[in-house]
Automatic annotation (TrEMBL), chain A:
<dbReference type="InterPro" id="IPR013785">
    <property type="entry name" value="Aldolase_TIM"/>
</dbReference>
<keyword id="KW-0456">Lyase</keyword>
<dbReference type="InterPro" id="IPR002915">
    <property type="entry name" value="DeoC/FbaB/LacD_aldolase"/>
</dbReference>
<comment type="similarity">
    <text>Belongs to the DeoC/FbaB aldolase family. DeoC type 2 subfamily.</text>
</comment>
<comment type="pathway">
    <text>Carbohydrate degradation; 2-deoxy-D-ribose 1-phosphate degradation; D-glyceraldehyde 3-phosphate and acetaldehyde from 2-deoxy-alpha-D-ribose 1-phosphate: step 2/2.</text>
</comment>
<dbReference type="GO" id="GO:0004139">
    <property type="term" value="F:deoxyribose-phosphate aldolase activity"/>
</dbReference>
<keyword id="KW-0704">Schiff base</keyword>
<dbReference type="Pfam" id="PF01791">
    <property type="entry name" value="DeoC"/>
</dbReference>
<dbReference type="InterPro" id="IPR011343">
    <property type="entry name" value="DeoC"/>
</dbReference>
Automatic annotation (TrEMBL), chain B:
<dbReference type="InterPro" id="IPR016163">
    <property type="entry name" value="Ald_DH_C"/>
</dbReference>
<dbReference type="InterPro" id="IPR015590">
    <property type="entry name" value="Aldehyde_DH_dom"/>
</dbReference>
<comment type="similarity">
    <text>Belongs to the aldehyde dehydrogenase family.</text>
</comment>
<dbReference type="InterPro" id="IPR016162">
    <property type="entry name" value="Ald_DH_N"/>
</dbReference>
<dbReference type="Pfam" id="PF00171">
    <property type="entry name" value="Aldedh"/>
</dbReference>
<feature type="domain" description="Aldehyde dehydrogenase">
    <location>
        <begin position="32"/>
        <end position="471"/>
    </location>
</feature>
<keyword id="KW-0560">Oxidoreductase</keyword>
<dbReference type="InterPro" id="IPR029510">
    <property type="entry name" value="Ald_DH_CS_GLU"/>
</dbReference>
<protein>
    <submittedName>
        <fullName>Aldehyde dehydrogenase family protein</fullName>
    </submittedName>
</protein>
Length: 316, 472
């Protein structure tokens, strides 16, 4: 990294001005170049045994998500059951990584998932806009953890970030991290609202410096969600961050990933950017809902040799 | 590690005859004297092709001469129809031609499929569009074709170089005799078939296969009006000598030792991709390859560690595997040359590094290699290696970068990596190179003229400028 002006003692920026200098000292991102690289990685041909391996890994990386105003206990129970056993017809099919719901739904999901090894993630901090006072965000977070969530998906204040108030964003993440207690903290950057790749890189570093366990692309509630170039950039960020500070941070693209083909492109990207260390549900997740059934369909196709219709896979 | 299972492109789409004659006057002749062409990835003999002697070249030039009168008299819009048709047939047969190109040349299928073939078709489409607009191209109100063009092309981009030569020649009303490289004659012969399929009048395009002597007969032939050559500077010099004083028009596209300049404010990850693309694209068999990396000393260590990490992910092997990044070296002779220059690099004290990489037992292979600690005085900083070998030098200031970049007998291309637009423009202005890429490398487009300064040749191919070489 070319960034300078970090504290000699901690090696980390320790004032708002230092923080700004640090983030603006990160190397720039060439838009054409990163998009071309992401597209090139998307042309890898993954077939037969590699495809089977990739599909199972992708299933184990899914954060099965429902984030609707219309979510009910019944819907959430059904989704949680699906998370435990995505393909009732095939016991060799692995469970997904986690279920992701609103805080109000956490106790319902927790009742189904308890002791299963499938994690329970809750969005918090006035998801999806993040436009609420800090106290409200922290209460939201504490509630979710108290209800049984062991992963918190928080949103950053894009308003503060775009206004250049990096210290405010930083402090909020630190506070939410503290409120999360033992729960893993995923920080949603909402890259579709950040506007530039340079901003995505800065926001990634900001979140990691503030203590994020995961950085996540999107809420899925704005028109542009996860894209391959943005995810590639975030993978480069976690790679460089570990090289500098020795701490590994996970990455979660969310929103818009619907097909097995797309999921495999992301796995190829991990493989050729950050390597083995991130090829695990502990370090990479897909925030998705409809993706799971396409993975199951392709999985069945690989084992049986033919495609089964959509009615052969459970709705949720 | 997530391993990719083999994903080979089927070669069954290409059917090769046991031997190929010369394509003269719209007909394939019988092959008398022949030579073999092999797959450089396996050393397997693919087929044999005719070795054209002086009489064969005579016949080909005579056929082109006969065809010239009616071809040049056709309205441009008529010639355009043939070129558009050729372009479309190439698109339709692109998978077959891509597999063939990878078989004969050794380049990875993803490059022949995604780079070579689309550019070949684009070139024919582009010049088809010029054929009826020559009066408005800025070469006078009545530009005339030159006559018969003798064209000699190299083995690194066999079909693409053919397109660069034939498309503008035909669009401007010339007829051609083309000699493909000795090691890669097949795609030109398949192109002859495309010409037949397009009903191109006999004699407008003639293909004579052979080695250096065949090329010499062609360029020295008294009835050739225009000579176009792409290849080594050494052969280019001989051609310039033999053409001097004959009244033949000449264009040469020769070697290069391009500087790829990375400033300290460059977008590092994308610069690394550009460096990789600059030198490892097509096994480094690229005249405009970014074979000299000039990196600002203050970011050298960081950049090189990123580059090494990236190089470790390059996949070297079967050219027909869709996941192969680096294919086979085109010939034993070229491999020997790369090996020799690399050994000289080590002997002269540069530090050599390649990622761990298993190379196949048969065929011609060379692992991607970088030399650090290279100075202007090293031979590997001055001579064209034409392989996957990068020489890394450092600089301190923009002025020094420009000085070092220009300190070469060549001047074909250059690259600049910087986030600062003003710096890119200022440096590009001072570089003596035909093409300067900014924050990218090895990007080609038929609309853009291509050619060199100094020993990299003269004349331009591509774009409106490319017409000039074929018009009087």
């Amino acid at each position: 990294m070319t960034a300078t002006a970090t504290s000699r003692l901690s090696g980390r920026p320790d004032s708002p001005a230092d923080l700004r200098t640090f983030l603006h000292g990160l190397p720039g991102v060439d838009k054409v170049g990163i998009e071309a690289r992401a597209a090139a990685l998307g042309t890898r041909s993954v077939k037969t045994s590699s495809k089977a391996q990739a599909i199972d890994l992708a299933i184990r990386m899914v954060d099965l998500t429902t984030l609707e105003g219309a979510d009910t206990p019944g819907k959430v129970r059904a989704l949680s059951a699906k998370a435990l056993r995505p393909d009732p017809a095939d016991p060799t099919c692995p469970p997904v990584a986690a279920v992701c719901v609103y805080p109000a739904m956490v106790p319902t999901a927790a009742a189904v998932l308890a002791g299963s090894g499938v994690h329970l993630a809750s969005v918090a901090t006035a998801f999806p806009s993040g436009q609420a006072p800090l106290e409200v965000k922290l209460a939201d977070t504490r509630d979710a953890v108290a209800g049984g969530a062991d992963e918190i998906d928080m949103v950053i204040s894009r308003g503060a970030f775009l206004a250049g108030d990096y210290a405010k964003v930083f402090d909020e993440i630190v506070a939410v991290k503290e409120a999360s207690g033992p729960a893993h903290l995923k920080v949603i950057l909402e890259t579709g609202e950040l506007g530039t790749y340079d901003n995505v890189r800065r926001a990634s570093w900001l979140a990691m410096l503030a203590g994020a366990d995961f950085i996540k692309t999107s809420t899925g509630k704005v028109p542009v969600a996860a894209t391959p170039p943005v995810t590639l950039l975030m993978l480069e960020a976690v790679r460089d961050f570990r090289e500098r500070y020795g701490r590994q941070v996970g990455v979660k693209p969310a929103g818009g990933i619907r097909t097995t083909k797309d999921a495999i492109k992301y796995l190829v990207m991990i493989n050729e950017t950050v390597g083995d260390d991130w090829l695990s549900p502990d370090w990479f997740r897909f925030g998705a809902s409809s993706l799971l059934n396409d993975l199951l369909m392709q999985r069945t196709k690989l084992t049986t040799g033919h495609y089964a219709g959509p009615d052969y896979f459970t709705l949720d | 590690m997530f391993e990719y299972a083999p994903a080979p492109e089927s070669r069954s789409i290409v059917s090769l005859a046991p031997s190929y004659g010369l394509f003269i006057d719209g007909e394939f002749g019988e092959a008398k004297d022949t030579f073999k062409t092999i797959n450089p990835a396996t050393e397997e003999v693919l087929t044999e092709v005719a070795l054209a002697g002086p009489e064969d070249v005579d016949r080909a030039v005579a056929a082109a001469r006969r065809a010239f009168e009616s071809w040049s008299a056709r309205p441009g819009s008529e010639r355009a129809k043939y070129l558009f048709r050729i372009a479309r047939i190439i698109q339709e047969r692109s998978r077959e031609l891509a597999v063939l190109e990878s078989l004969d040349n050794g380049k990875p299928i993803k490059e022949s499929r995604d780079v070579d073939l689309p550019l070949v078709a684009a070139h024919f489409f582009y010049y088809a569009g010029w054929a009826d607009k020559l009066k408005y191209a800025g070469f006078g109100s009545d530009p005339r074709p030159l006559g018969v063009a003798g064209q000699v092309i190299p083995w690194n981009f066999p079909l693409l170089m053919l397109a660069w030569k034939i498309a503008p020649a035909l669009a401007t009303g010339n007829t051609v005799v083309l000699k493909p490289a000795e090691t890669t004659p097949l795609s030109a012969l398949f192109f002859a078939d495309v010409c037949r399929q397009a009903d191109l009048p006999p004699g407008v395009v003639n293909i004579v296969t052979g080695a250096g002597d065949t090329g010499r007969y062609l360029v020295e032939h008294p009835d050739v009006n225009k000579v176009a050559f792409t290849g080594s500077t050494e052969v280019g010099r001989q051609i310039a000598r033999s053409v001097a004083g004959t009244g033949k028009r000449l264009s040469l596209e020769l070697g290069g030792k391009a500087a790829n300049i990375v400033f300290d404010d460059a977008p590092i990850d994308q610069a690394v991709e550009g460096i990789v693309n600059g030198i490892f694209f097509n096994q480094g068999h690229v005249c405009c390859a970014g074979s000299r990396l000039l990196v600002q000393e203050s970011v050298a260590e960081e950049l090189l560690s990123s580059l090494r990490r990236r190089m470790a992910t390059l996949r070297v092997g079967d050219p027909l595997d869709k996941n192969t990044d680096i294919g086979a070296i085109n010939s034993r002779a070229q491999l020997d040359k790369i090996v020799e220059l690399s050994e000289i690099g080590s002997e002269e004290g540069a530090e050599r590094w390649s990622p761990p990489c298993d190379l196949p037992d048969r065929g011609f292979w060379f692992a991607p290699t970088i030399f650090t600690g290279v100075t202007q005085a090293h031979r590997i900083a001055r001579e064209e290696i034409f392989g996957p070998v990068l020489s890394v030098l450092t600089f301190r200031t923009p002025a020094e970068a420009v000085e070092k970049a220009n300190n070469t007998p060549y001047g074909l291309s250059a690259g600049i990596w910087s986030d600062k637009g003003s710096q890119i423009l200022a440096v590009a202005d001072k570089l003596r190179a035909g093409v300067v890429w900014a924050n990218t490398f090895n990007k080609f487009d038929p609309t853009s003229p291509f050619g060199g300064y100094k020993e990299s040749g003269y004349g331009r191919e591509g774009g409106r400028h490319g017409l000039e070489a074929y018009l009087a």
